[in-house]
Amino acid sequence: MKTALITGASSGIGKELARIHASKGGNIVLVARRGAELESLRSELEDKYNVEVAVFQQDLSQAGAAKNVYYFCKEKNIEIEYLMNNAGFGGHGNFVDRPLEKDIEMIHLNVQALVELSHLFLQDMKARKSGRILNTASTAGFLPGPLQATYFATKAFVVSFSRGISHELKPHGISVTALCPGPVKTEFEFAAGMGNSEMFKNGATAYSTALKGYNAMMKGKRICISDVGLNILIKFLLPIIPDSLLLRVIQKMQTI
Ligand SMILES: NC(=O)c1ccc[n+]([C@@H]2O[C@H](COP(=O)([O-])OP(=O)(O)OC[C@H]3O[C@@H](n4cnc5c(N)ncnc54)[C@H](OP(=O)(O)O)[C@@H]3O)[C@@H](O)[C@H]2O)c1
Question: Could you identify the atom of ligand 1 that is nearest to the CA of residue 15?
């Protein structure tokens, strides 16, 4: 099993992706801001699965962050076969009333870092004619998002970008998968300022979501909508729901 790089590995879906990959005997590079959480996961995985785990503490919303991650791997001679762009956060409230810096930071993390990391690691994957990318998007990527407009738009970018490059990269032996979860019980709802909102009460577990995404990546699927109900809604109901009704329903769902 080859090496995976997982961003946002200090909690939630990313942490479970790391556990799943390690359980199959794969080495890992863990990336996030909280070094202590990453170190504790490193010990857990090395002890339990006898794999090699490297930790790189990095704020991916900062300029130059993706290059720092890439050159860390290069210096350590670590070849990344599986790139899992998972780090991301949301933010609740009317766009006009939110601090603009927070939404720009979100775009830097959810969009820019994902694009930069993909471009850097794809150079090596293309040369090797092998590799897989798993981008954690969201079912939000298929919807308009009143009260989380910027977040939904970042995930629409991730879905569209993943679909586009997946087609370009097919002839090069590289697959790209967008994992699109519905609500998942992680630290996300608190980071988004939606702590304990109704929407997350029946959310999926981080483990089940990560497992579906990991398996979809391994099968080379383009899109993985991990929530069965939302999968049906997006595929069959969305095309026939009037936009004004959709916007009202989503606004209600996002209200806390
Ligand atoms: N939970 C949901 O309902 C849900 C639904 C659909 C999609 N998603 C997506 O799933 C992905 C993972 O989220 P999650 O639910 O697992 O939430 P989470 O538990 O809050 O995990 C987010 C991860 O991203 C990392 N991160 C945040 N800001 C960062 C930064 N500036 N630089 C580097 N790493 C950063 C966090 O680590 P540090 O704080 O240590 O940096 C953490 O490891 C996100 O892209 C999210 O948008 C979540």
Answer: 43
Can you tell me whether residue 6 is helix, strand or coil?
A: strand
The pLDDT assigned to 77 comes to 98
**Which parts of the chain have pLDDT scores under 50?**
none
Residue 145 Cβ contacting ligand 1 at under 6 Å = no
Query: Distance, CA 185 to ligand 1 centroid (Å)?
Result: 11
- Tell me the CA–centroid distance for residue 187 and ligand 1, in Å: 7
Taken in order of first residue, the domains within the chain and their CATH numbers are: 3-254 (3.40.50.720)
pLDDT at 251: 95
DSSP per residue, 187-249: SHHHHTT-TT-HHHHTPBPHHHHHHHHHHHHHHT-SEEE--HHHHHIIIIIGGGS-HHHHHHH
* 85 CB near ligand 1 (under 6 Å): no
Assessment of whether the complete model's pTM goes beyond 0.90: yes
**In angstroms, rounded to a whole number, what is the distance separating the alpha carbons of residues 85 and 31?**
10
